[in-house]
Amino acid sequence: MKDVAALRCVARYVKPYWAGTVLLLVLHVVSTMASLVLPAINATVVDGGVVGGQTDLILRLGGLMLVISVFQVACSFTAVFLSSRVATAMAHDLRRDLFASAQSFSAEEVAEFGVPTLITRSTNDVHQVQMVVLSVFNVMVMSPIMLVGGIIMAVREDVRLSGLMILTAPVLGVCVGLILWKVVPHFQRMQQRLDTINTVLREQVVGLRVVRAFTQEDREAERFDEANQHLYDTSLSAGKLMALNTPTVLFIMSLSQVAVVWFGGLAVDSGGLQVGSLIAFLSYIMFILIAVTMATSLFMMIPRAAVAAGRIDEVLGTTSSVEEPASAPPALLTERSRTGRLRFDHAQLSRPGAESPVLSDICFTAEPGTTTAVIGSTGAGKTTLLNLIPRLYDVTGGSITLDGVDLRDIPAQELRSHIGLVPQKAFLFSGTVASNIRYGRPEATDEEIWESLEAAQAADFIRALPDQLDAPVSQGGSTFSGGQRQRLAIARALVRKPLIYLFDDSFSALDAATDAQLREALTSWTRESTVLMVAQRVATVRECEQIIVLDGGAASGQGTHHELLETNQVYQEIVTSQALPEEVR
């Protein structure tokens, strides 16, 4: 069933290019049939022209053969060109839709597949399918016509010699079938081990600083060598089996050629067969050999491509757990109705297979013009709670409403256009400072960018750069420190001027003085917006109008800093772990 689904997936992407596909198939048919005619004409030239001494016949039929050859080459060239265009276009569409599918996934689907395997499926797997589609277009039509046509033409030349093919075909089919049966499981393991090596490599590249800090280079090298060796062993085993294919086919077909020359020579000697017919028969044997070789080579490629196509179809067939509503609610279509009021009403989030909910019975309201802080121990569910608002996850119980409308009734794109998110890990894209800030709002002017940088306490170090806003930013923002990346990520959210700001532990890399200056600047910048922030430091949240204390995925307390300090034990423990209670009152 998986192979059928994979075949349908590939056919669906080839279908839009049906005109080019039909044309190239017709050209291949014409080219192959023209090539089958040439040996028969050549036999007439040899028997009637060379042996019979008819020079006019040689010139006339030789000219005809030349015209047919040129026509065949032109048809073959055009067909190969069209097949390349169709296969490349199909691969382009596959990569585009794989990327779009991955972009539509919620955090749950991304975690389920894993980033390395999504990369492998969008690159290596698509390449495998593209190569097979190209080979199918060039071989699948030519090979059967060449095989069947070669047999028919060979029988036409001499029936007795053609009997040798009846003995050869079953032996050839059994040998190739055994090789295919053995090689398919190796291809499946190869794709899985490609995923593994991508996972290991990505972890080592992303965690390079940690590896070096703990002097674990040798250990990581061994880990990579182990994954690499597994891939090498599997690839080598598959390669050995595939290497048997061509010699096996050549050996069997060469034996049949030897038998044809032997028995054909005896027939020529006895006068039962003409020399031209024997030469033509040998040519058709060669056509049959080429057809079988091409077909078996294609059959060797198909199992690996089928595995790849199945993996691609798995991604394309996966729908996001964050479902889009049938239509946008009218309440969000007018500016006047947008205030940014968020309400969590017994919100709950459960993961498939988990024994207990990640978040349970979360109830609070975040009003416009106020700041709501979420604090708690590591693993309490703070970041997950924030991720519910832009619908990176959807609640599995209760509800979250924006201005009275359930978030699940709002299209994700519409909802996210009103949110400015600063993630826990500040990520910058390769480009310039300006292009990274304009990621929040593409139409932002330079003046607005500078204003957001001022508010984010990033303007000073940007002005110190030679190119200022045009200063280059490497991938991931590695040219900046952690604190600088955080401030640039904050500026990117500020320039958007959304209804809701989400700060996910976005001040952790800042010193106390910069933290205080930034929070003071944010007070005036976000006075009309709803602000939710996750923080670890009590000093960061103590001035917030509302603090939610999470403990084990549940809200153990809610109130201001002073109220929680008096009533909530979990908050008291957090405060005590950072400073004496009297120091933070």
UniProtKB/TrEMBL annotation:
<keyword id="KW-0812">Transmembrane</keyword>
<keyword id="KW-0472">Membrane</keyword>
<feature type="transmembrane region" description="Helical">
    <location>
        <begin position="279"/>
        <end position="302"/>
    </location>
</feature>
<dbReference type="InterPro" id="IPR039421">
    <property type="entry name" value="Type_1_exporter"/>
</dbReference>
<dbReference type="GO" id="GO:0005524">
    <property type="term" value="F:ATP binding"/>
</dbReference>
<protein>
    <submittedName>
        <fullName>ABC transporter ATP-binding protein</fullName>
    </submittedName>
</protein>
<feature type="transmembrane region" description="Helical">
    <location>
        <begin position="161"/>
        <end position="184"/>
    </location>
</feature>
<dbReference type="InterPro" id="IPR036640">
    <property type="entry name" value="ABC1_TM_sf"/>
</dbReference>
<keyword id="KW-0547">Nucleotide-binding</keyword>
<feature type="domain" description="ABC transporter">
    <location>
        <begin position="342"/>
        <end position="577"/>
    </location>
</feature>
<dbReference type="InterPro" id="IPR027417">
    <property type="entry name" value="P-loop_NTPase"/>
</dbReference>
<dbReference type="Pfam" id="PF00664">
    <property type="entry name" value="ABC_membrane"/>
</dbReference>
<feature type="transmembrane region" description="Helical">
    <location>
        <begin position="249"/>
        <end position="267"/>
    </location>
</feature>
<feature type="transmembrane region" description="Helical">
    <location>
        <begin position="131"/>
        <end position="155"/>
    </location>
</feature>
<feature type="domain" description="ABC transmembrane type-1">
    <location>
        <begin position="22"/>
        <end position="304"/>
    </location>
</feature>
<feature type="transmembrane region" description="Helical">
    <location>
        <begin position="61"/>
        <end position="82"/>
    </location>
</feature>
<feature type="transmembrane region" description="Helical">
    <location>
        <begin position="21"/>
        <end position="41"/>
    </location>
</feature>
<dbReference type="InterPro" id="IPR011527">
    <property type="entry name" value="ABC1_TM_dom"/>
</dbReference>
<dbReference type="InterPro" id="IPR003439">
    <property type="entry name" value="ABC_transporter-like_ATP-bd"/>
</dbReference>
<dbReference type="InterPro" id="IPR003593">
    <property type="entry name" value="AAA+_ATPase"/>
</dbReference>
<dbReference type="Pfam" id="PF00005">
    <property type="entry name" value="ABC_tran"/>
</dbReference>
<keyword id="KW-0067">ATP-binding</keyword>
<dbReference type="InterPro" id="IPR017871">
    <property type="entry name" value="ABC_transporter-like_CS"/>
</dbReference>
<keyword id="KW-1133">Transmembrane helix</keyword>
